[in-house]
Amino acid sequence: MAQEPDALLRALHQAYARPLQSYVVRLTGDHALAEDVVQEAMVRAWKHPEVLAREEGATRAWLYTVVRNLVIDDRRSARHARERTTDTTPDTPQPDASQAVLDSWLVADALEELTPEHRAVVVGAYYGGRSVAELAREHQIPEGTVKSRMHYALRALRLALQERGVSA
C-alpha cells in the first residue's frame, strides 16, 4: 500500500507537471516561478493523499486550483511588491579603493609640511598637470626657480613621507 501513493504521485507528476508549468508561465511570464509553483503543488498533493484517490478530472481541477492560488498568493506577497528581478546586476563590482584613499590622505598630510611656495609648484605640476613654463608664468618667477622649488619640494615631501612610515 505504501508503494501505491508514490506510484500515483509519480504518475500525477508525469501527467500534469508540464501542462501546469505552461499554465503558470502564461499567468506570470516567469519560468523559474512556474517551476517552484508546480513543485509546491506536487508537494501539497503528496501531503494530501486523498487527492491521489480522486477521479482524474477532480485531481486535475484540484491541481490547477492549487497552482492558481499559489500564483495569487505570490502576487499578493510583500516580496513581489518590493522586489524586482533582473538579469543584470545594478552595480558592477569595483576594486577596493580604500588603500588609494588612505594614500591620498597620507600625501595630503605630507604636503601640508611643505612651504606654500614649494606646495604650489608640486600641486600645480602633479595635480594641475601644468608645465614648468606655465607654472613660471602663473607664479611670475623664472623657470629655473620653478625647477629648483620642485627639486627641494620633492626632497622635503620624500622626507615627510618617510617620517610617516612610507619607504621609497
From TrEMBL:
Keyword DNA-binding (UniProt): yes
User: What region holds the RNA polymerase sigma-70 region domain?
Assistant: 12-79, 110-158
Ranges of biased composition (kind: Low complexity)? 87-96
Q: Which InterPro entries match?
A: RNA_pol_sigma-70-like, RNA_pol_sigma-70_dom, RNA_pol_sigma70_ECF_CS, RNA_pol_sigma70_r2, RNA_pol_sigma70_r4, RNA_pol_sigma_r2, RNA_pol_sigma_r3/r4-like, WH-like_DNA-bd_sf
**A Pfam family this chain is assigned to:** Sigma70_r2
Which Gene3D superfamilies does the record associate with it? Answer: 1.10.1740.10, Winged helix-like DNA-binding domain superfamily/Winged helix DNA-binding domain (1.10.10.10)
Q: Where is this region: Disordered?
A: 78-97
Keywords linked to the UniProt accession: DNA-binding, Sigma factor, Transcription, Transcription regulation
What protein family does this chain belong to?
Belongs to the sigma-70 factor family. ECF subfamily.
Q: What is this protein called?
A: RNA polymerase sigma factor
